[in-house]
Design a protein that fits this description.
alpha/beta, 2 domains, 425 residues, six-stranded mixed sheet, FAD/NAD(P)-binding domain
């Protein structure tokens, strides 16, 4: 079967890999000239398989005034005339209840653990022996300054332990002993949650390297610089996608992996997809020549500020913020200054590198559903399948999601019960 994958971020590239491995002919297309140049490019770099609790949880109701009105809030919203923003927000608030959050967490954990196994298998593929994306098992330490948040995290660890998660709740002294780079931090820590087997990797390098490997395989074609401009429909079936002004690309099936652009294509195909962009930012610090403990070896999350820190090679990736601002691509100085001040507070020995002009400020749009669960499987349109809506977990969930959609398209039984990931009718 000839399958066209729409979008060459980490979801699209891994989907192409699994479809090709299943024996299909694959055409991967993207508006950019290469792979991983959108939301995958400057993400937080953490492969966070055990820390997948959704943004939609009951604590949102108590923190909502802070989110809306505090200038220091890590989550902000800029109202737009776009009805999709308000529809998404109402569905998000509806999902902010304990039972829904627990169900979502279990489904995300199952998909994350599948994804970890698949990433391990992918890395062992002899055909990918030259794939180098600065991968390592770094461990992850989530740090808390508020005692109430720390106790809530303890309860979350206990809940996740019943579903295969192995995490340790540590007091502040134990956290500082585990990661010496935090000993100079200017924060009053309540404690942290440590997950020893979490991983890290450069997502952009992964996408580019995997695409290069796919290009050498028969049955695969990449169309870069090919913006999808429409859907050629008849009788509820997608027959072709339009590229540019005049070209049509036909296939036996299509997989929508366009990230934050997925909802727009779905509207062209005649149905609503509850995916909305959550904007985030990152900077990247060069660490060469610094003291060994100037920056962390373990991946760090500052829970109160929602900033993550991950060492990839000789760099420190710093990423954070959640903004509902539509598709505004601008990078305000305020957002970058927040990342810089957060880094100074935690790792003052690395603060000198923040004056560098080579911080590569970046903004990307996480394609999020209101519940936090990705949408994987058939769409209401014949021949069109979905693999989108992963929010901030696209890097983490990519291999598992790709494995699931490839099995479905091949007529095989997926490894997980797919009901949780289906598009609600």
């Amino acid at each position: 079967m000839h399958i066209c994958v729409l979008g060459a971020g980490v979801i699209g590239v891994t989907t192409s890999y699994y479809l090709l491995a299943a024996g299909h002919e694959v055409t991967l297309i993207d508006a950019q000239e290469g792979a991983g140049l959108g939301a995958s490019y400057g993400n937080g770099a953490q492969l966070s398989y055990s820390y997948v609790a959704p943004l939609a949880d009951p604590s949102v109701w108590t923190k909502w005034p802070h989110y809306l009105f505090s200038r220091h809030s890590p989550l902000t919203m800029k109202p737009t005339p776009d009805a999709a923003q308000w529809t998404w927000l109402m569905q998000f608030l509806k999902a902010c209840n304990a039972e829904r959050a627990r169900q979502t967490t279990v489904s995300l954990l199952q998909l994350a653990y599948l994804s970890r196994r698949e990433m391990t298998r992918l890395r062992a593929d002899p055909a990918l022996e030259s794939l180098d994306f600065q991968h390592r098992i770094a461990g992850k330490l989530v740090m808390f300054t508020e005692q109430a948040s720390f106790e809530a995290a303890r309860r979350q660890v206990e809940f996740q332990a019943h579903h295969g998660s192995r995490q340790d709740v540590l007091d502040a002294d134990a956290c500082l002993g585990l990661e010496p780079a935090l000993q100079s931090s200017q924060r009053d820590w309540a404690g942290g949650v440590y997950t020893a087997d979490e991983e890290v990797g450069n997502c952009a390098l992964f996408c580019q390297g995997l695409l290069n490997a796919l290009r050498s395989k028969p049955g695969f074609r990449f169309r870069g610089g090919a913006a999808v401009t429409g859907a050629d429909m008849s009788r509820g079936q997608l027959n072709a996608v339009r590229i540019g002004r005049n070209e049509k690309l036909e296939a036996d099936a299509f997989v929508l992996t366009m990230g934050a652009g997925s909802a727009g294509f779905a509207r062209q195909a005649g149905f609503a997809l509850p995916v909305y962009p959550l904007k985030g930012y990152s900077i990247t610090l060069g660490l060469a020549g610094l003291n060994e403990h100037a920056a962390p070896r373990i991946s760090i999350t500052d829970a109160s500020r929602k900033i993550v820190y991950a060492r990839i090679g000789d760099d420190l990736r710093v990423a954070g913020r959640v903004e509902l601002v539509g598709h505004d691509k601008r990078i305000p100085e305020r957002a970058i200054e927040e990342l810089k001040s957060g880094t100074t507070a935690l790792f003052p020995q690395a603060a000198g590198r923040l004056a560098s002009a080579a911080l590569s400020p970046w903004a990307g749009f996480r394609p999020a559903t209101p519940t936090g669960l990705p949408v994987i499987g058939p769409s209401p349109v014949k021949r069109l399948y979905l693999n989108t809506g992963h929010g901030g977990l696209g890097w983490t969930l990519a291999c598992g999601s790709a494995s699931l959609i490839a099995r479905q398209l091949s007529g095989e039984r997926p490894e997980l019960d797919m009901e949780a990931y289906q598009l609600a009718s």
